[in-house]
Amino acid sequence: IDLNPWIQPRIKSVPGGLMSSAAIQWVIIGGESGNENGLWKYRDCDTGWMTRIVADCERAMCPVFVKQMGTAIAKRNMFKSRHGTDIAEFPPQLQIQQFPIDYETFG
Asked: Is the pLDDT of residue 17 over 90?
């Protein structure tokens, strides 16, 4: 499997499924955080891409953790959390924060 299309930062969708290898044990996704200008600008995120990644992970029985919606989505939807980190504000299909069974090995 070529993981390059999914390595951060990912701003475009890739045709085909994400999960085609048992080597992937955990997927963490989220929109970019940042500022309006300066060095740390943010880019928009398509929740459709995030939803497809979650679906791919579910089909492959791979845990997925949605970290945040990102600054662009948070601003557009007037979230309380500046970077869209409050899971209660996520779309229902993205309110998922799973850990691998042996998640301590990742820390």
From this structure: no
